[in-house]
What we know:
By secondary structure, the chain is mainly α. The protein has helices spanning 5-16, 22-37, 57-79, 82-92, 98-108, 136-148, 177-194, 201-212, 231-248, 269-280, 311-314, 321-330, and strands at residues 285-289, 299-303. It is built from twelve helices and two strands; from the N terminus they run ααααααααααββαα.
Amino acid sequence: MTTNPLHLYRALLRECTYLALPRCRTFMKNYVLHSFRRYLPKYKPAGRTRTGREIGFGRELRLLHSGRKFLSMLRRANEGHTGPLERVLRMTYGRMGPRRYWLLESFVASESSSPEFSPSDSRPVEKYSKEWEPPSRLMALVKSQSVQQAQFENGVPKVKPRFNPPATNRWGKPLPKSRYKNLKHKWYNENLDAVLPPLPETEYNELRDMVTGKRDMPALIPRRAKAQTSEEGKEQEELMKQSSLILDGPKPGLRGKDFRVDQPHKITPRLLRRHLARVVLKRTPLVKAALPDKNKQDLVFFWHDGTSYDILQKEKVTVPLTQRQLDLLFG
């Protein structure tokens, strides 16, 4: 027996309304709407995929299974389980999921509309060849994250700012062009999967103010109470409990190991601030334009968790961290 898609859709939207932060509610609601509407049939009774083919029964089962898993994650996040709650925060603020790729578009896009040409030849540069280089804005972000990623928790993918292919293959011969391109393609994709793009400055300032306590946490939406049952309904429930006790026997109580792993927490402003600082703000850079007389780079990135120190108020945000360290050591 499969799940009714309409019941799953309504349950997902219901759980989205009880999330802790308004941005989480808005983002998750739009995410659920888009996920269902992309398969909504417009002119024919059968839904279709992106390629125009009809959705088979196996594909429908997999989609319903992923929807039930997503519903379980939202429910556990609303109950106060830390793992699902962190996942919701990371998806909302673009540390994972589709929004991270939307924020990366401005860094991955080509800096000029005209194709690149090799300096020694008039032909355009082939992608992932020796002459091809990734966008400078993306590499500036990767280099900045490579300095900061030592402070990230375990499990966060690491970026690799340098591409060091082997000079020869296993047989000691020069590395073929196809092998070089494949290695560079793999290195580029691994960096795309690990890089963390910055948020818009207004959203970043709002996030920082919530973590530092300058902005109050929004109030939680209380859950709707269950409908009151009549006296006959209560008597029927009691009879069902007694009959199940006779037929199935007593149910086992809670065990000791049930209290060890991933117990729900009460969602409080302090809990949200700690998770936002550790999972979101610590992994989100603030981007600023560099001063022309201080640095040759166009962008400067700053990483700040909002709890240990207030670097944005004490230091110049237009001077990179490495340059400030050199000025401090050598004057």
